[in-house]
Structures are given as C-alpha cells and as structure tokens.
Write a structure and sequence with these properties.
Layout lengths: L13 H7 L10 H17 L6 E5 L2 E7 L3 H14 L9 E4 L2 E4 L3 E6 L4 E4 L2 E4 L1 E2 L2 H14 L5 E7 L6 E4 L12 E7 L2 E7 L14 E5 L3 E6 L2 H4 E5 L9 E7 L13 E2 L12
Parallel strand pairs: 5-8, 7-17
Antiparallel strand pairs: 1-2, 2-14, 3-4, 5-9, 6-7, 9-16, 10-15, 11-14, 11-16, 12-13, 12-15
Helix pairs in contact: 3-4
Bound molecules: 2-oxoglutaric acid.
C-alpha cells in the first residue's frame, strides 16, 4: 500500500481567519505599550499564517503546506483562470528531452514581470504580463509567506491522463534562496517526491518517497534545499476525470549574467486575455 503524508483539511481561508482574530486588550494607562503591541500585531497580520501550516520534512526536504483558499474562493479562482490564461500551442507546446522533441502531456503558460524569461526542458519562454487573477493569487501567497515572486508557470491538466514527469526545479536563473510556491486548483492530485539518490534500479540508497495529495485551494511551499536533493512528479491517475490548474510561483534572478537569450519563444498574447477568434 502506498504511504501518503496525511495533510489536514482546515476549512477556512487565511483572509477570513485574519479578519476574525481578536485584538489583545490593554489597560488605558499603558498607552505606549499598547501602541507597540498594536503595531506588532499589524505586522504579524501582514506576514503571518493564521491558518495552520503543516511542515513536511525529510532528509534535505523542507516543505510547508496549507489550504490557502476556501472551496468557494478556489472555485471562483479556477473559473477566472479558465477565462484569462492563454496556453501555448503548436511548437510552443513541445519540449526537448535528450535532444528529442515531445508534446507536453498537459497545457502550459508562463506569466510574470516584463521581459523575464525562463528556460526549462530545452525551451526558453518569455513571460506574458500578469493577469488580474494571477496577480491576486500571487499577492495572497506573498501575504502568507512574506516571499515575493516575479514569475509563474501555469500547468493545466485536463484530467488524470495529463501528468508531469519526475524533475527538479533547479534551473540556474531561479533564485536558490527563494522557495517555489505551488498553488493547486481543481482536481486533487497525488504529488510524489523522490530523493536523487533513490531513483531507478541503480539507486545507491533506500530512501522512502514522500507522497502528498494536493487539494483544491492548497499551497505547497518547496523551500531550499528541497529542489537540490528531491525530484518531484505528478503521476497519471486514470480515475481523475476533472481538470486541475497548478501555478508555481518562482523568483527569477534579475541579473542578465548567465541568462540565455537565444531561441526565446515570444509571448503570443500581450494582454493576458483570451482572444475571441
Ligand atoms: O502540477 C503540479 O503540481 C506540478 C508542477 C511542477 O512540478 C512544476 O511546475 O515544476
């Protein structure tokens, strides 16, 4: 039987929890102290995580998981993204692995700050301008983590046949000190981490894989050094019949050093809105 990390099903979103948090009351004659405590509390509201985070740890793996959005909000965000996100087609929907070109078994799009590019699987992609919903979700993630992001990779899985193979997000243009924040909307899907020393028949160590189920409205933070030591994948699950959208928010280094500028695939849509044609 497969062993999964059991993740909690807290029902409330961060925003509603923050709003209902009680203020600490102080005596009238202690005004300065009261003011200091109020300021500290406001700072905490801005960058704390009032819903319970779950820590997921193993050797060289450090992740945090939380249900960021309520079901209603997650349903709404999914619908909005279905309207706004424009996915790559044709040549742009292919990747190169060991020199061979393949169709991607899902749909992909890249959004972010102006001019940013990201190279993975042999293809360099230019970020389309943020859409309002991507911006909203990015800001919600920043609010609960205190981390900023300038790029998002959008993956859309039409059903459980669509998948993502084992890989690490360790490209040199990614800030190695920044976590990768993965927001999931739609079908719950299994997500599997495998240690680099425990892959394949030739593996030199026996380390158990870490298996999670990523829920609708969830946020998984993959903190450094997770992506150095652990590969991750989203395997085929034939019983899953509904779509899922995953957003991985990333921080791309702004220095032009080492940034490949060749073979850049242009962003085909400038507005981030679907064309009617
Ligand atoms: O859809 C997922 O949860 C996986 C996404 C992923 O592995 C990636 O964007 O690197």
């Amino acid at each position: 039987m497969e062993k999964f990390v059991i993740l909690g099903q807290n029902k409330r979103s961060c925003n509603s929890d923050a709003a209902t948090r009680k203020k600490i009351k102080r005596g009238k004659d202690d005004r300065i102290k009261e003011e200091e405590e109020k300021n500290a509390e406001e700072d905490e509201d801005e960058f704390s995580h009032p819903v319970p985070w779950q820590k997921i740890e193993a050797e060289g793996l450090d992740c945090d998981y939380v249900l960021l959005f309520s079901k209603e909000e997650a349903d709404h965000l999914f619908k909005q993204l279905e309207e706004e996100v424009v996915y790559s087609t044709g040549e742009e929907a292919k990747v190169q692995v060991f020199g061979k070109v393949y169709d991607i078994p899902r749909k992909q799009a890249t959004y972010g700050d102006t001019g940013l590019t990201y190279t993975y699987s042999g293809v360099t992609r230019l970020a389309c301008p943020w859409t309002p919903t991507l911006e909203y979700i990015r800001d919600a993630v920043t609010k609960v983590t205190g981390q900023t992001f300038n790029f998002v990779l959008v993956n859309r899985y039409k059903d459980g046949q669509d998948h993502m193979g084992e890989h690490r997000d360790d490209e040199k243009e990614l800030d190695p000190l920044s976590p990768i924040a993965s927001v999931s909307l739609g079908a719950a899907r299994d997500f599997i981490f495998r240690h680099r020393d425990a892959r394949g028949k030739q593996s030199c160590r026996q380390i158990e894989p870490v298996k999670l189920e990523l829920a609708h409205g969830s946020l998984l933070l993959m903190n450094p050094p997770t992506n150095t030591f652990w590969y991750h994948s989203l395997p085929v699950r034939k019983k899953v019949l509904i779509p899922r959208i995953n957003l991985t928010f990333r921080r791309i280094l702004l220095s032009d050093e080492d940034k490949p500028r060749h073979d850049v695939q242009e962003c085909t849509v400038q507005t981030g809105q679907k064309s009617s044609g």
